[in-house]
Amino acid sequence: MLRDAIGKTFRLLGYTIQYGCIAHCAFEYLGGVVVCSGPSMEPTIQNSDIVISENLSCHFYSIQKGDIVIAKNPSDPKSNICKRVIGLEGDKVCTSSPSDFIKIHSYVPKGHVWLEGDNLRNSTDSRCYGPVPYGLIKGRICFKLWPLTDFGFLRASPNSNRICKD
Asked: Which helix (H) or strand (E) holds 85?
């Protein structure tokens, strides 16, 4: 009787570890559900919107200008940020605020991206902390789940004029 109980306990523990590993790999490499907070991506993503992110794009280096990504915050590695890719390595980007009279440009260095929030007046982004290393990108947001009124693929940037086309 004791032997059966111990055997069942170890089997349950084994299954738990196996399924835990599968879940970890799925969330780490495939993607997951993300709850966004903060005003920096308004009006595209509002505070408390629920989105789906996929992680394969950043593993295969297929992030493009205009994509919305989840990345580690360069200023605080314990938190994540949700921003739009404005420039890839080698691109010329405007590093000044939209309200600045004199526009300053620079080039995105190799292995980095330039990230900005859609709400330019209320966003801490690459204009504050500079280009973000590509390795800090965790995933690309591809779909909005909540609220149901906005269910579907994300809309284009309201600041599309800041994204320089090739």
From this structure: strand 80-87
Residue type, 31: G
Strands 92-94 and 105-107: antiparallel
Token pair 């789940």 in the structure block, residue = 145
- Alpha-carbon distance of 83 to 69, in angstroms, equals 6
pTM above 0.85, yes or no: no
Residues assigned a catalytic role? 40, 83
> How far is 51 from 97, CA to CA, in rounded Å?
28
Report d(CA 112, CA 83) in Å as an integer. Answer: 14
Instruction: Give the list of residues 6+ apart from residue 150 with CB closer than 8 angstroms, or none.
Output: 49, 144
Tens digits of per-residue pLDDT, 25-62? 777 777 777 888 888 888 888 888 888 888 877 777 78
Tell the residue number behind the tokens 């080698």, with chain if given. Answer: 90
